[in-house]
Write a structure and sequence with these properties.
By secondary structure, this protein is mostly helical. Helix content is 61%, strand content 0%. It is elongated.
């Protein structure tokens, strides 16, 4: 079941490109980060992904405006679900919601399962 959210490296690339498009970072700042993301994609190790993520965070921090603020802003923008869901995803979500769960724990940054946190 996928809701069309990016995987970690795609998320880093999207955030870096958005920061560049919104002129928060320069091409000279974005290019090395995008190169590190490409290397991390080739290596497929958590260390390489973490290194690329740290480089992006430091680049955004050097741009001013608070790196956490920029990360939060771009993550909210990128991780908005594409609505309306297609019929298959909607049916699966309806089925999941109909089950007698006491709680659902997810590590995803999604808003597919709405409700009050117990």
């Amino acid at each position: 079941l996928t809701a069309g959210f990016p995987h970690w490296l795609e998320l880093l690339e999207l955030i870096c490109n958005k920061a560049y498009q919104h002129q928060k970072i320069t091409k000279e700042q974005a290019t090395p980060v995008l190169n590190l993301i490409a290397v991390a994609s080739a290596l497929q190790t958590h260390e390489a992904v973490e290194f690329a993520a740290t480089a992006l965070q430091e680049t955004l921090q050097s741009a001013g405006g608070g790196s956490q603020h920029l990360l939060d802003m771009y993550m909210k923008e990128v991780l908005q679900p594409k609505l309306p869901f297609n019929a298959d995803i909607k049916a699966r979500l309806d089925f999941l919601c109909s089950l007698p769960w006491k709680a659902i724990v997810t590590t995803n940054y999604d808003v597919l399962m709405e409700g009050v946190t117990p």
